[in-house]
Amino acid sequence: MSHQIWIRLSEIRDAAALMELDALVWDKDSTPAQIVWTSREQYLQKCPPGSQLVAGIGDEICGYLGFDSPTPLPSNGHVYDLNIAIHPSYQRQGVGRKLMESIKIIAAEQGIRKLSLRVLATNPGAKAFYESCGFLEQGRLVDEFYLDGQYVDDILMWCPIVPSE
What GO molecular function annotations does the UniProt record carry, in alphabetical order (predicted)? Predict the structure, then answer.
């Protein structure tokens, strides 16, 4: 890629751009229910500043990777559940890979031992991308969703993290 990709933690000023990105990226092939934010406040409550890595080129935000513990249980605190969205104009240009590399470094520094995510079986491109980033299939919820007239499996994937010393 000829342009430098930057990565940083999300800030309150990113809310509008990230809400637009959600509206653009999440569709019937990538999520069982389209994400619709009713207000900036609702978005910020669900996705507070610092809960995502934001990727950009120049002044443009071109993707994000959200990370959070899957439950509030201390016994589950070693896991980050991920979601990632890349603007269609910036897909296949290294943005997603740079976000994945960055979250692995942050997770290792924070003592996180496992990254997990979910992907619909109807999204083989995303599954292949995750596999290329070191994710493995850990399970499959068969016929979990009924989308567009067909039953669709929800694939559970994970990536082990070796904590920094």
Answer: acyltransferase activity, transferring groups other than amino-acyl groups
- What does pTM read for this prediction? 0.91
Q: What is the CATH number of the domain that holds 67?
A: 3.40.630.30
**Which pLDDT does position 36 carry in this prediction?**
82
Q: Output the pLDDT for position 1.
A: 45
Distance (Å, whole) CA 135 – CA 116? 8
pLDDT < 50 regions, the chain: 1-2
Residue from 127, 122, 74 nearest 96 by CA: 127
Number of domains in the chain: 1
Task: With respect to residue 165, please indicate whether it lies within any of the assigned structural domains.
Answer: no
Residue range(s) defining the domain that contains residue 88? 5-160
Per-residue CA distances from 147 to 98, 113, 152, 153 (Å) = 31, 33, 7, 10
Q: Which of 45, 162, 17 is nearest to 104 (CA)?
A: 162
